[in-house]
Amino acid sequence: MKQLTSHEGLHCANCGASMQGEFCHECGQSIHSVLKPMHHMLEETVETVLHIDGRIVHTLPPLLLKPGFLTLEYFAGRRVRYIAPFRLMFVLCLLSFFVFHLAVDQFTGKMPANGQPLVSVDSRAIEAASSPAEVRKALQDELDGLQSARDTGLLPPNVLEQTHTAARELRRKANQRLVALDAAPMSAASLAAPPVAATENVTGDTKPRDALPKATEGESKPVQIAWLPDLVNARLTALGQQMHRNWRAVKHGDPAASAEAKQRMINGVFGVLPPTMFVMIPIFAVLLKLFYVFRRRLYMEHLIVALHSHAFMFLSLLLITVVGMLSTWLRPHAAWTGYVLGWIQALLMLWVPTYLLIMQKHVYHQGWPMTLLKFWFIGWCYFWLLMFALMVAAALGMAH
């Protein structure tokens, strides 16, 4: 049991008021000093972390499984045991986009999946060839596969170098097989040279990449909108020029520069997405206010609904992404896990609109016909607003 402590005769160090508890009733300052031994600070840190963990346990399960429960609890004044709506949405937004970014990097080839190399070659066909013609055909098939990987422009520089090393190794093994078949081996020059010429000249053009027409080298035209300030026009012009340079690097640059530009744009898009969603949340609350104007609810109540709705969507995005990454990692080792996790992903996707519909019904207490009608109209309006916001975010990301 916590001991009762008398504060008689103690005064606040900040405002001088008589203390009646651990916190001053005038200015709110604590009676405890911040100058403490290190072990006391560690104790308070552990207590704070455990307290937050307790609120997570009370918050995340109902957020995922009980539509509208957290919102109604907040309206009823039972708030201490749950994470605050904005903090909950903020953390889940950053975490979900971070994990989704990792998944996109894995998909585009920046990160290896399950620790396996991004570039792998199979020399068994070369070693099993029974004639020089079969050796050369098997070698050409493997080299064509490596060339296709380079032409995607998605390989980072270190992986691009791996393709050249793999090509030299294939030529070496093909040479060994030709010698074993008593055929003339390939020349030393073709054995050591990486297949750069094919990468730089896949269309038969004898001009190097740097000799592209000047039309592709030019900058985008300056933006001049009469009703906008010059500062805004200058900013739009700079964004357009950077977008043009990134796009030019993707389309006409060498594979390394193309991969770098693509990764730069992806990073830019994911850097803009969280602020974009923060703007969309109050807009969604405005839609709720308009469609439920006769319910006589304050805008702040609609904003709480919007915060919890988006927190749920970010949590769902996080779970769907994690399940998808697990499926990618486990499918090569146990194919049945891929089907199970695929069904879990599908159920999570179906649960998102179902959850939002049930939440709208529980919070606003209208009949199902009116709830369905308003849910459809709100969803339709919000979908197109979200698409517009995502297009703006994509444009800003491409100009990163």
Q: What are the key terms here?
A:
400 residues, mainly alpha
The string of secondary-structure elements, in order, is HHHHHHHHHHHHHH
- Find the structural class using helix and strand composition: mainly alpha
Q: Helical residue percent?
A: 55-70%
Report the radius of gyration as a whole number of Å. 31 Å
What is the averaged pLDDT score?
79
Overall body shape: elongated
Number of discrete helical segments: 14
* DSSP summary, beta strand count: 0
Major β-sheet profile: none
| Strand content bin | under 5%
Q: Low-confidence stretches at least 5 residues in length (pLDDT < 50)?
A: 110-118, 195-217
Distance between the termini: 58 Å
How would you describe this protein?
The protein has about 400 residues and is mostly helical. Among the domains are: about 35 residues, no CATH class; about 80 residues, no CATH class; about 140 residues, no CATH class. It is about 70% helix and about 0% strand. The protein has 14 helices and no strands. Helix 10 packs across helix 11, helix 11 packs antiparallel against helix 14 and helix 12 runs antiparallel to helix 13. About 10% of the residues have low confidence.
Provide a compact summary of the structure.
Helix content is 69%, strand content 0%.
